[in-house]
Amino acid sequence: MSTEAQRVDDSPSTSGGSSDGDQRESVQQEPEREQVQPKKKEGKISSKTAAKLSTSAKRIQKELAEITLDPPPNCSAGPKGDNIYEWRSTILGPPGSVYEGGVFFLDITFSPDYPFKPPKVTFRTRIYHCNINSQGVICLDILKDNWSPALTISKVLLSICSLLTDCNPVSQETCSQGPAPALTTPILRLQFHPVPASPVLKFQDVVSQ
């Protein structure tokens, strides 16, 4: 009789142990389910961003191929590294201008909204020009309100070269940080004080003014 009693006593303990094990497994599985749900939300956000980046990246890749095969005169441009949205450009001073013989480096930054928004183009090389401020910001209408998705970075570089050839003091007010003062004042003075026929005799008269 004692042996049968022991068997009866052992059976509940075994079933009770299995129920505890099931509870532990269910507790361990609940955190795993909670971790899976946030990943789905992240996937939705990244898909929207990827679609926008894909549109701009295709356009930039196309322009890169075009500017590589047929670059604008005295200009070159391309990505700095693996980032297709960050470019470095080189412009040689236009022949016949005061910048002839100079080499100027520019940074070009495309946004994910390109070509519906203009690229950001700034001079890295310090330059004295009435339409380029001390921060390298270019006062060019097509880089601001007059931008059009039909424009390309090649056309932008051509416009910058044209700006180096012919300064446009009228548009210098669009500079956010103000124009480069070192060049603006001498240009205006030369307009009012042309070089005299006899520089030695007239030098003191010009200086006194």
Automatic annotation (TrEMBL):
UBC core domain sequence ranges: 55-209
Record-linked SUPFAM superfamilies: UBC-like (SSF54495)
Pfam families the UniProt entry points to: UQ_con
Low complexity bias locations: 46-55
Pathway: Protein modification
The keyword Transferase appears for this protein: yes
Region (Disordered) location: 1-55
Family: Belongs to the ubiquitin-conjugating enzyme family.
Protein's UniProt name: Ubiquitin-conjugating enzyme E2 E2 isoform X1
